Amino acid sequence: LLFNEAYLFLQLAGTAVLAIGLWLRFDSQTKSIFELESNNTTFYTGVYILIGAGALMMLVGFLGCCGALQESQCMLGLFFFFLFVIFALEIAAAIWGFANKEKVIDELKEFYMETYEKRSQAAARETLKAFQLALDCCGVKGFLEQQFMDTCPKKTVVESVTTVSCPAAIDDVFNSKLNVIGAVGLGIAVIMIFGMIFSMVLCCAIRKNREMV
C-alpha cells in the first residue's frame, strides 16, 4: 500500500505540474506572451519544460503503479530508470539555475522591457497585465506609473505609494524567494529518492518470492 501511495503521489505531482504548464500556455492572459515577437525564449522554454516534465512524471507514476500491482520487475525497472533520469535532470537544472541566476534575472528583465516597449500592441498589454499582477509591480518606475498605467494592478493612492517597479520586483523574487524554491526542489528530490528505493525493495521482494516458488 505504501508503494502505491508513493507512486500515486508522483502521478498527482506530475498532473499538477502539467496543469500549471498548460495553464500558462493557454490561459487568456499568459498565452499572449507566445504571440509576441521576441528573441527572449526564457519564458517559452520554462513553460514547455513544465509541460514535458509533468507528462513524464505522470508516465513514470503510472509505470510504478502498474509495476507494483502486477508485480512486474520490468515495469519497476523502467520506473527506476526514468525516475533516476528525472532526478539527474533536476539536480543539473538546480546547479545551472544557481550558477546562472544573474543571467536568468537579466533575461527576464530584458523580456519585460521588450514587452513594456511594445505596450501599444494588444498582446503585449495582456502580457504586461499578467506579469504585473503576478509580481504586484508597475512599469519601470513603480508608484510613479501606478495611477495612469491601466495595465498595473488597481490600487488606491495610499496603496500605490509602496508599489515597486517590475525590474525591482524580479530582483526581489529571485533574491528573497530562492530559499523557498530550493526547499521545494529538495522536497521533490527526497520523494524521488524514496521512490527509487521503494522500487528496488519491491523488485527484490518480487524476485525473492518467485525464487521461493
Q: Describe it for me?
A:
With 213 residues, this protein is mainly alpha-helical. It has a domain at 1-99 and 188-213. It has nine helices and no strands. The protein starts with a helix and ends with a helix. The mean pLDDT is 80. Disulfide bonds join 138-152. This is Tetraspanin. The chain crosses the membrane at residues 7-26, 46-69, 76-99, 180-206. It is found in: Cell membrane; Membrane; Secreted, Extracellular exosome.
Helix and strand run: HHHHHHHHH
Number of helices: 9
- The assembly state of the depicted protein chains is single chain
Number of strands: 0
Mean pLDDT across every amino acid position: 80
Q: Report the span from N to C terminus.
A: 23 Å
Q: Which spans of ≥5 residues are poorly predicted at pLDDT below 50?
A: none
| Approximate strand percentage | under 5%
| Rg for CA atoms | 22 Å
Residue share in helices? over 70%
Features:
213 residues, 9 helices, 78% helix, fertilization, disulfide bond, integrin binding, palmitate
Question: What is shown here, in short?
Answer:
It is found in: Cell membrane; Membrane; Secreted, Extracellular exosome. The chain is mainly α.
Give the topology.
Blueprint: H1 2-26, H2 42-70, H3 73-99, H4 101-117, H5 122-135, H6 143-146, H7 157-160, H8 166-176, H9 178-212
Helix pairs in contact: 1-2, 1-9, 2-3, 3-9, 4-8
